[in-house]
Amino acid sequence: MNEKRTAIVTGGSGGIGSEICRRLAADGFNVAVHYGSDASAAASVCADIEAAGGTAMTARANVSDEAEVATLFAAVTKRFGGVDVVVANAGASGFGPIAATEISEFERLIAVNFRGAFLTLREAARQVRNGGRIIFTSFQLAERPRVGTGVYSATKAAIDAMLVSMSKEVGDAGITINSVRPGATAPGMFDDSDEERADQFRKLSAFNRLGTPTDIAGVVAFLASDDAKWITGQHIRADGGMSN
């Protein structure tokens, strides 16, 4: 059995997820880089980790499929001997007025952000070893919805509410569960055509800049560490003061 601690990061193939994978590997974790469809991106993250002296594997799963989530955890346990940290980072975005939202779009966001996160967190509660960590990547909009973010905000807020209850359910095993609420981050959230909107978010920050995936990965790494053993059931704002 591998004596190093092991982390699963869903949505680990790009953006914030890839930086979380790299940071946890740098902190000494075996890392399972989960992906939904982009195998090459996941392989690239895995290669980066191994080139830096870490240990990683890639693992594909549709997080909204109950059987595939169970298979994901089983594959990681088979490779590394168990799971100590789960970062439920996989998510989908979509914005627009409620009145203009098609049911297909509503169901897509529910499938990934609510059902997918639920299945991941449920399996984590079943599989994570004593003293482990469960971390959910939420968003500032879960706390402060804006015009056009209603469905997306609701999917994130629903999981944030659920994990407060979960913290009481897994506490006897020394397991903590928390969410991280990033604000606007780049790259990944904005493209060249969104410069005006990006500038609006910069002005909301105390530092007059957007967040970066590295900023968020640092907060996740702290919550995954032994230093965070007394923090549970919390929603950590990691938005550079954008929600103040």
UniProtKB/TrEMBL annotation:
Q: Which Pfam family, an example, fits this chain?
A: adh_short_C2
Keyword vocabulary terms for this entry: Oxidoreductase
Question: Any keyword Repeat?
Answer: no
For the keyword Membrane, the answer is no
Give the enzyme's EC designation. 1.1.1.100
Coiled coil segments of this chain: none
Gene3D superfamilies xrefs: NAD(P)-binding Rossmann-like Domain
Q: Name one GO molecular function term.
A: 3-oxoacyl-[acyl-carrier-protein] reductase (NADPH) activity
InterPro entries documented for this protein: NAD(P)-bd_dom_sf (IPR036291), SDR_fam (IPR002347)
The EC class name is: oxidoreductase
Give the record's family classification.
Belongs to the short-chain dehydrogenases/reductases (SDR) family.
**What name does this protein carry?**
3-oxoacyl-[acyl-carrier-protein] reductase FabG
The record lists the organism as Fuerstiella marisgermanici
